[in-house]
Design a protein that fits this description.
The complex is a heterodimer of chains A (about 130) and B (about 425). Chain A is α+β, with helices and mostly antiparallel strands. Helix content of chain A is about 35%, strand content about 30%. Chain A has four helices and six strands; from the N terminus they run βααββββαβα. In chain A, β3 and β4 form a beta hairpin. The longest helix of chain A is centred in the first third of the chain and has 20 residues. The relative contact order of chain A is 0.27. Chain B is mostly helical. The longest helix of chain B has 24 residues. Among the domains of chain B are: about 80 residues; about 90 residues, Arc Repressor Mutant, subunit A; about 70 residues, Serine Threonine Protein Phosphatase 5, Tetratricopeptide repeat, CATH 1.25.40. In chain B, about 70% of the residues lie in helices and about 0% in strands. Classes of the chains: A alpha+beta (about 130), B mainly alpha (about 425).
């Protein structure tokens, strides 16, 4: 099963670390990620730039509007996301529990929704229209 | 090295995973002292086999190879994580490379599975936590499948499993089969968990049965494994009880999913093979020196199985067995069952007196089956008003859909 894992960064705590400490954290994270790839648990993942880089796109009163991001000024920022392949939820929890990134902030794990039946039904509806 | 066509190795490993992975895991947990590390090591070993067996051939003892490789891979993981100064909780020490009993024979491996069952069903854990942990670690079900079966959110069940594992680690629950003195109590806890798993599957509504794992089937498999590893009379009694109840499954619900009472069941739908096996096990358990509650319940189920029709049931024998059961394991529910059996032998009046006395003690005031049993006896005595009142009380307490429909039908019949 696939699990989408959202990694948060505790900004205040991060700011207290020296550069070499920050490097250690990064090295540990990337090493762990390499292990996830090697073991076939890594489906995908990206780091995120800061919330000040975000753009919101909305559909409003028949028009598309574009504004600056929501600027969630919280103690914890969404720093990146990771898609895991794991045997079950407890396995995903175990993989994240060992992730060195957990020392930099909490992670949220959400099971991916299997949309296959919905897609199949939609295909049938669309085929019937033809 | 045995010769195998290289293309056959993935299939061979699939088959090995199905038949051996639980045993290998149990041994790795003993060697490594950690559930999750053992699981990682085991999967690493299967991955390594997929790479090296096509090249080097299949080892003579594949299971021993997988255990030994799994252990090395797990130690590798510990070393890797230690290098980054992120000592993972509970994994602080690298296990001794010369762990005693590392490569034991068949017997040692079988003991590991028994150890795993006793650890998962330790009395320090709640029965619900034990059931979840046993199904995941011993039976190999996924968290999501167990959650579906218990009608629980996967996140809740996952936390239950995580906490149970931490408790095992923090409380230092030993990974061992308890000694002679402790064994009866510890075995009781195990049997309770197995029967809990069985009942979750047995009293589940039929509608959802399509997508959930067969919990009763898992419980029966667990019972068989346990009996193979620990031939104790009560283990035999529990397996007998589960098989006898399971044999009536098809007759317990109508095609529409409604509940069918034992006396109204179409006995041609009973599974004769399961029933015969259950009866034989019950007889053997009953003949032992130490007769326990599961054996007595199995003996009662076996008497029901003997009767070609409901009216041919030997109620005197059933009452005798319930009396014995009350003596060794007193419970108001057993008293209720005995009262119903008395009503079947001596008439509804005699049963009603017993049930009224029981309800008067308030212990079963919240138990819907006590009210529905009372309602049934009043109905048979022609005391319609009282019957309606009791059915209503039962309906107010019943939570299972088929049971509720059954009670509603009875109410409609009486109010005609």
């Amino acid at each position: 099963m696939k699990y989408i894992c959202f990694g948060y960064l505790d900004v205040q705590q991060w700011a207290t670390l020296s550069q070499s400490e920050q490097h250690d954290r990064f090295d540990a994270c990337f090493t762990y990620d390499e292990g996830l790839k090697k073991d076939g648990h890594w489906v995908g993942g990206e780091g995120l730039q800061g919330p000040d880089t975000a753009v919101m796109v909305r559909y409003k009163e028949g028009k598309v509007s574009v504004t600056d991001g929501p600027y969630a000024e919280t103690k914890e920022l969404l720093g990146g996301l990771l898609i895991l392949e794991a045997r079950d939820l407890n396995h995903a929890i175990h993989l994240i529990s060992n992730h060195p990134g957990l020392k930099m902030g909490p992670w949220e794990i959400r099971p991916a929704a299997d949309l296959t039946p919905m897609i199949r039904e939609s295909e049938q509806r669309r085929a019937a229209l033809k | 090295m045995a010769a195998t066509a290289p293309g056959g190795i993935p299939d061979l490993l699939d088959a090995l995973f199905r038949s051996e992975s639980r045993r290998i895991l149990a041994t790795l947990i003993r060697l490594l002292g950690d559930f999750d590390l053992a699981e990682d090591g085991m999967h690493d070993a299967f991955t390594a086999a997929l790479e090296s067996w096509p090249r080097d051939g299949v080892p003579r003892n594949p299971r021993a190879w997988l255990v030994s490789t799994g252990r090395f891979k797990a130690i590798d993981r510990l070393r890797r994580s230690a290098r980054f100064k992120t000592p993972l909780e509970g994994l602080a020490e690298i296990p001794d490379e010369e762990a005693p009993g590392f490569m034991e024979g068949q017997e040692g491996i079988e003991d590991d599975r028994l150890r795993l069952i006793f650890t998962c069903c330790h009395p320090a854990l709640s029965p619900e936590a034990s059931a979840a942990l046993t199904l995941r670690e011993v039976c190999g079900l996924t968290t999501e499948a167990i959650a579906r079966a218990f009608l629980t959110a996967p996140s809740t069940l996952a936390q239950r499993i995580v906490r149970a594992k931490s408790k095992i680690r923090d409380a230092g629950i030993p990974y061992e089969v308890p000694g002679r003195e402790e064994l009866p109590d510890r075995l009781d806890a195990v049997l309770k968990v197995v029967y809990l798993v069985f009942n979750e599957g047995y009293s589940a509504s039929s509608g959802a049965a399509l997508t959930r794992p067969d919990l009763s089937g898992e419980a029966v498999r667990l019972g068989r494994l346990l009996l193979e590893l620990l031939p104790d009379p009560e283990v035999r009694g529990l397996l007998a009880l589960m098989l006898l109840q399971e044999s009536r499954r098809a007759a317990r619900t109508s095609p529409a999913g409604d509940l069918v009472l034992l006396e109204d069941q179409d006995r041609s739908l009973w599974d004769r093979a399961l029933m015969a096996e259950g009866k034989a096990l019950a007889e053997r358990a009953l003949a032992s020196r130490r007769v326990g509650p599961y054996t007595l319940q199995a003996a009662i189920a076996a008497v029901h199985a003997e009767a070609v029709q409901g009216s041919a049931t030997d109620w005197t024998r059933i009452i005798g067995l319930y009396t014995l059961l009350l003596r060794i394991a007193p419970s108001p529910v057993v008293e209720l069952n005995r009262a119903v059996a008395v009503a079947m032998r001596d008439g509804p009046r005699a049963g009603l007196d017993l049930i009224d006395a029981l309800l008067g003690r308030r212990e079963l005031a919240e138990y819907h089956l006590a009210h529905s049993a009372r309602a049934d006896l009043c109905r048979r005595l022609g005391r319609t008003g009282e019957a309606i009142d009791s059915y209503r009380q039962a309906l107010g307490l019943a939570r299972q859909e088929p049971e509720r429909r059954f009670l509603e039908r009875r109410l409609v019949e009486l109010q005609k």
